[in-house]
């Protein structure tokens, strides 16, 4: 099946600096992609190229079967939402939301109805007459969203739309946003540098580092397997070892799972059991060889839905485990045996 949005080998230079280096990705209709990356990674540039606000130095773009590059920005059928809402301050809510419809020559009566529908969709029914300078940050973003949804774009691009809001409001709006996009079956690319937001909002998450697309997968897939050392480090994964820093005992346990870039030992795959010398003979049989790795609990912290347990092994190596609240948490200073569930060792590539 052909993709709805096809981005192929996009390159962009700014002066002597390669901002985007052969970025390729594709989206199906109705899919939400979150674009995650550090500041300066090229996220906004990619969005600007999709919107037609910048022209690439190489590559191709195709949306709904149409070659996008020759099409003027306002004819691409693409909606944009920015971090600062960018509302027209001299117009009220209704006129802001109706703006694109007016430009497209939609009749006044149809405009009014569409504005009403869009305001209902974003939870601002009855706010048509309000001045935009009196609105809260969250309300401004809802108006901006209604304005970009009103002309029924084929693709919606959102550049850190929640970046200026406080944490609680941000989480609530992110939930609302996802359900609005899904309700409208909209295809969207959402830029953020907030990992939690990227993982909770996107059907798939793409990681852009130094202008290169380093990974693209479902949130679950990416979290289970970040693929490369650079992505694992960017995602802030603990227990990441390069081939040089991986101790021999783990090299043996990891078996073939040590890639050229190293290995990630997934914290949720580390089980804590009785320390090897304290185990009874029947546990020895059940526990298998993995419990032979012994560690001491250095710290235990509560994270709302799990405990994070920092462990120190005999040779000074540190590991972090993630324990569900359903298990009794170990006490600090207590020696424990470690068990590694299947799939805990993930090979990382170098690139
Ligand atoms: N018009 C321009 N002229 C010169 N350099 C530019 C221009 N636009 C972008 N850049 C450079 O390209 C790189 C990527 O910028 P971009 O804004 O795309 O990154 P980003 O991932 O969106 O970052 P942020 O999260 O901070 O917005 C940066 O080093 C930036 O300085």
Automatic annotation (TrEMBL):
The keyword Amino-acid biosynthesis does not apply. GO terms for molecular function: ATP binding. The lineage of its organism: Bacteria, Pseudomonadati, Thermodesulfobacteriota, Desulfobacteria, Desulfobacterales. This is ABC transporter ATP-binding protein. Pfam families: ABC_tran, TOBE_2. InterPro entries: AAA+_ATPase, ABC_SmlMolc_Importer, ABC_transporter-like_ATP-bd, ABC_transporter-like_CS, P-loop_NTPase, Transp-assoc_OB_typ2. Residues 5-235 form the ABC transporter domain. Keywords: ATP-binding, Nucleotide-binding, Transport. PROSITE patterns: ABC_TRANSPORTER_1, ABC_TRANSPORTER_2.
């Amino acid at each position: 099946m052909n993709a709805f949005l096809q981005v192929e080998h996009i390159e962009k230079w700014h002066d002597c600096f390669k901002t985007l280096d052969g970025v390729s990705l594709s989206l199906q209709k109705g899919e939400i992609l979150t674009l995650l990356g550090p500041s300066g990674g090229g996220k906004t540039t990619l969005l600007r190229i999709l919107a037609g606000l910048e022209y690439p130095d190489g590559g191709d773009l195709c949306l709904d079967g149409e070659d996008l590059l020759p099409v003027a920005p306002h004819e691409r059928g693409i909606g944009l939402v920015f971090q600062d809402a960018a509302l027209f301050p001299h117009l009220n809510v209704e006129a802001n939301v109706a703006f694109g419809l007016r430009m497209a020559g939609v009749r006044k009566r149809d405009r009014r109805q569409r504005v009403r529908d869009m305001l209902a969709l974003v939870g601002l029914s009855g706010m048509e007459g309000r001045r935009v300078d009196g609105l809260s940050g969250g309300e401004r973003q809802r108006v901006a969203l209604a304005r970009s949804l009103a002309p029924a774009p084929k693709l919606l691009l959102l550049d850190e739309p929640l970046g200026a809001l406080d944490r609680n409001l941000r989480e609530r709006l992110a939930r609302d946003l996802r359900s609005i996009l899904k309700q409208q079956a909209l295809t969207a690319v959402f830029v953020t540098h907030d990992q939690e937001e990227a993982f909770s909002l996107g059907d798939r998450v793409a990681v852009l580092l130094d202008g290169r697309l380093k990974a693209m997968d479902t949130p679950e897939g990416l979290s289970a397997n970040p693929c490369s050392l650079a992505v694992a480090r960017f995602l802030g994964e603990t227990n990441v070892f390069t081939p040089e820093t991986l101790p021999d005992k783990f090299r043996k346990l990891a078996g073939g799972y040590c890639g050229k870039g190293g290995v990630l030992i997934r914290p949720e795959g580390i089980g804590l059991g009785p320390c090897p010398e304290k185990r009874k003979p029947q546990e020895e049989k059940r526990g298998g060889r993995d419990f032979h790795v012994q560690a001491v609990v250095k710290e235990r912290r509560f994270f709302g839905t799990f405990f994070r347990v920092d462990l120190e092994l005999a040779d000074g190596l540190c590991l972090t485990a993630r324990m569900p609240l359903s298990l009794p948490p170990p006490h600090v200073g207590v020696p424990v045996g470690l068990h590694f569930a299947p799939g805990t060792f993930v090979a990382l590539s170098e690139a």
